[in-house]
Amino acid sequence: MEGERSGRVVCVTGGSGFVGSWLVMRLLDQGYSVNTTVRSHPAENQRDLSYLTSLPGATERLKNFTADLSNPDSFNAAVDGCIGVFHVATPVDFQDKEPEQAVTKRSIDGALGILKACLNAKTVKRVVYTSSASAVVFGSGNDVEEVDESFWSDIDYIKAKISYGGSYMVSKTLTEKAVIEFSEKYGLDVVTVMPSFVVGPFICPKLPGSEMAYLDVDRNELIGHPFSRRQANTLDTVGMYISLESPKIYRNSGVSNTHA
Length: 260
Ligand SMILES: NC(=O)c1ccc[n+]([C@@H]2O[C@H](COP(=O)([O-])OP(=O)(O)OC[C@H]3O[C@@H](n4cnc5c(N)ncnc54)[C@H](OP(=O)(O)O)[C@@H]3O)[C@@H](O)[C@H]2O)c1
Hints:
Strand order of the largest sheet: 3-2-1-4-5-6-9
Keywords: NADP, Oxidoreductase
Organism: Malus domestica (Apple)
GO molecular function: oxidoreductase activity, acting on the CH-OH group of donors, NAD or NADP as acceptor
CATH topology: Rossmann fold
Radius of gyration: 17 Å
Largest sheet: 7 strands, parallel
Structural class: alpha/beta
Order of helices and strands: HEHEHHEHEHEHHEEHHEHE
CATH architecture: 3-Layer(aba) Sandwich
Number of domains: 1
InterPro entries: Epimerase_deHydtase, NAD(P)-bd_dom_sf, NAD(P)_dehydrat-like
Bound molecules: NADP nicotinamide-adenine-dinucleotide phosphate
Number of helices: 11
Protein name: Bifunctional dihydroflavonol 4-reductase/flavanone 4-reductase
């Protein structure tokens, strides 16, 4: 498999994070060459990315690029020459430290900047965009056991009812809508994946936000909500992504009822 895919370059945005780093590992495993983007953190002189650079295959096939969603053009270099782009990076702030409008703007501007880079590159065959079950289950889907790709979360419902992670959920819903609208307008092949709470093994040094939220029983009002009863294991979640070269599925939910 490695031989078949050598020379196939893909981009993973947000490779430093929980899902992104696992995805980088899997793609390297599968023989892809991977361009990943990380943010520069001025406070940290040198960011320790050894958990990525020491992965099998990384020395030969992993390149790190610095990019920030606040500067959408900063992703151009990482996307250039890729056959596929996995957009994973997003502001994850369940404590709502920033106003929702700022989070949403950064998320949408960054995502659309990445899609524009994909169009300009002329080599990108498919974009796999990371949405979230939170873009689907709040509002119209709130009381039903099954949802499909026709469901969207209701922004007014989230704003009125959900304080824990509300800005994240609004931003995920509006960003996925903007991504789909852009892809339809410009004929770009985009698949969206919608993990629910991802729990399970991780290789990044930070305790993942979703695992922290899951443990935050005192403040997380979503514990007990159908949304948080459906968890996706890291491995299943990343499995959903590897649909890069398979027939097109439009919106892919990794929701499962099983614990990791
Ligand atoms: N984990 C879940 O349960 C879950 C469920 C549904 C959907 N998702 C989606 O999966 C994706 C990854 O989430 P995760 O759980 O892996 O979260 P994470 O560990 O916090 O990773 C988020 C990634 O985005 C990067 N990022 C944040 N703000 C950025 C900015 N302004 N510019 C560039 N990069 C930025 C982070 O970089 P730094 O390392 O510099 O912070 C990190 O690499 C997100 O799109 C999220 O919405 C996750």
